[in-house]
Q: What sequence folds into this?
């Protein structure tokens, strides 16, 4: 391990992962495991805030974990675990609910967004206290750095405030984490609407390349990618504002072939060729991932073993933190 900076990123087990998740985030996790002490949780307890049906969360957790291993997280190097396999998350989660005020939680923009979207539906109290559980996720592991996008900054801020408050009340106990900007991944846009991010909530699947897509479907999606009607000699150039569709293809191509978008652009005159080559380059990147993913899903014993390795490593750190926290507060020893 190059250094001991502990870095934690978690992912909710919701939906299938796509090329945007891979090139934008997961790939950096895989590289990061060699540079720092990486912890990655599949946060199934967080998914309960919107779960109302039996039999869904466990399956989604398994698939998400399988994909984390398939993209290259190495259970011998990184600590990859399911959140519910580490009961300390629930334990510290409650304690953190008592370090964060109702007012602070009321100011979380994500809660406001999510509860508004669920208007008329059941809004779980857990959706409101979610940041306390997230704080526990982070603080349990003495995390130094949490790479997050802008949508999560507020949650890291509340985590820091809660940890500072705890230390102030009960004495130096918790490591104060920092939000860091993740290593710039590719910004992957929808192949059908290149002005919005690739996402599973796209109206049609045509704009979204899932990591589990069949190669022929991947090629088809790239062949049908939306570009523009420019027929000039320099039509293939990297210009996000004027030519978002072409720029997206160039950025994806660059990301999977290890070049810059401008260098890729210099090799093409026609959109057709660029689409086909980009599709093929993506297939070459995704092929081994898809193969490994389905191998793992076919071997539930191995997957369970890998997750048990992660849970054991995670619990070792997490249980020590909970013990320290209990001692600091002065809870009656069991
Ligand atoms: N809230 C995060 C999201 O929606 C997921 C998450 C839960 C998380 N716990 C975390 C992210 C801890 C980073 C660290 O994406």
A:
């Amino acid at each position: 391990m190059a250094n001991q900076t502990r870095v934690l990123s978690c992912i909710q087990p919701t939906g299938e992962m796509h090329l945007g998740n891979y090139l934008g985030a997961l790939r950096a996790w895989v590289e990061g495991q060699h540079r720092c002490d990486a912890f990655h949780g599949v946060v199934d307890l967080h998914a309960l805030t919107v779960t109302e049906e039996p039999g869904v969360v466990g399956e989604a957790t398994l698939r998400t974990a399988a994909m984390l291993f398939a993209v290259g997280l190495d259970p011998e190097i990184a600590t990859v675990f399911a959140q519910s396999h580490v009961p300390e998350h629930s334990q510290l989660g409650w304690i953190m609910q008592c370090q964060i005020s109702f007012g602070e939680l009321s100011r979380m923009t994500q809660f406001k967004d999510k509860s508004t979207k669920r208007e008329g539906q059941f809004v779980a109290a857990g959706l409101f206290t979610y940041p306390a559980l997230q704080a526990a996720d982070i603080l349990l592991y003495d995390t130094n750095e949490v790479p997050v996008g802008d949508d999560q900054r507020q949650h890291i801020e509340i985590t820091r405030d809660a940890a500072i408050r705890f230390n102030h009340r009960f004495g130096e106990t918790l490591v104060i984490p920092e939000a860091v900007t993740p290593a710039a991944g590719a910004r992957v846009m929808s192949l059908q609407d290149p002005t919005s991010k690739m996402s599973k909530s796209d109206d049609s699947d045509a704009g979204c390349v899932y990591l589990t897509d069949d190669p022929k479907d991947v090629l088809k999606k790239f062949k049908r990618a939306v570009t523009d009607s420019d027929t000039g000699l320099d039509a293939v150039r990297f210009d996000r504002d004027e030519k978002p569709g072409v720029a997206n293809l160039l950025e994806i191509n660059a990301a999977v072939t290890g070049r810059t978008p401008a260098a890729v652009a210099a090799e093409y005159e026609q959109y057709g060729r660029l689409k086909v080559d980009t599709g093929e380059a993506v297939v070459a990147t995704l092929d081994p991932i898809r193969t490994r993913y389905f191998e793992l899903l076919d071997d539930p014993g191995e997957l369970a073993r890998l997750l048990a390795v992660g849970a054991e490593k995670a619990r070792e750190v997490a249980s020590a933190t909970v013990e320290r926290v209990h001692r600091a507060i002065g809870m009656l020893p069991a």
